[in-house]
Amino acid sequence: MRRTVKDEQEGRRRATSTDVARESGVSRATVSYVLNDTPNKHISPATRELVIRTARRLGHVPNPQARALKTGNSNIVLCLVPALTLGFVFDHALDALTRELARRGYVLLVHRISERVDSRAVRDIWKYLTPTLVVTIGGLPPAETAVLEKHAPAPVVSDYGIVEHGRIGQLQADYLIDRGHRRIGFVMPSDPALHAYAMDRAAGVTRACEKASLVPPVVAIVEESLKSYGNCLGVFERAGVTAACGHNDDVALMLLEALRDRRQSAPGDLAVIGADDIPLAERELTTVALNAEVCAASITNKVLAALGADNDLAPQGQLLSLIRRTSA
């Protein structure tokens, strides 16, 4: 009969600091000083090595909640995201944040939340984890952040507002309008993890249309299939749309592929502009580039400031810039 993880856990008792002390021939206090790296305690190198070696042999894992109570700091930064990948730029930001926190002795733990922040699933996290800081990346609106702050056991830092997503949509539409287009479309993915960003960018496109005295954009929501994008093109064609803003480069590139599938092309049949400037966009896609280095530094500096750590990352360049290629 196959044994489960639960069976294995029940079949063996977790080694405690008392076990480590007995096996090492030292006091429990000494074990605590060594495993918690307590400052201002003189422990000989030989004793320190013995305790660590014994703890490893016995499989002793310090209780994180107990350690947090003793030290007042868990050194864990919990990052809540709506998806395990948010795209090229924000994945880069997570990498930078992980690296900079590690340099300062912190561990970044990324946890995906698929429900509201006040759901039981999110509240149950605090039963098992005591972070020193909670970070949200992925467009959690201010109202949701306020809800999280009420029950989170640590301060909350949000990336919301670091990137002006509405400004991205406005730059996209402004460029297309300046090129003579008068009927604009906006294409957003159905993925709920990207909903907050997408709505902000769509609002930016709408503002640009209003400023130019044009009718609001035709907004299409697409699934991750070529057929869905083909249907979107049909909607645009019937509505007289001549240019489309993709929520991001992934969406825009799928639009270009759907055009090719219909034996059409950009910009002749439909001008297409994306956002982010991912590596795959370099061949043909006009896009609003989101500087990955500047974005990563902005998010990282905000988190480090909340921790009271030095935050001197200062990459050069603009956060947003228009990159003109052949698609629009």
UniProtKB/TrEMBL annotation:
Alphabetized PANTHER family for the sequence: LACI-RELATED TRANSCRIPTIONAL REPRESSOR, LACTOSE OPERON REPRESSOR
SUPFAM superfamilies, per the entry: lambda repressor-like DNA-binding domains, Periplasmic binding protein-like I
Residue ranges of domain HTH lacI-type in the record: 15-71
Designated name of the protein: LacI family transcriptional regulator
UniProt keyword list: DNA-binding, Transcription, Transcription regulation
Domain of life where this protein originates: Bacteria
Transmembrane segments: none
Organism the protein comes from: Arthrobacter nitrophenolicus
Region ranges (Disordered): 1-22
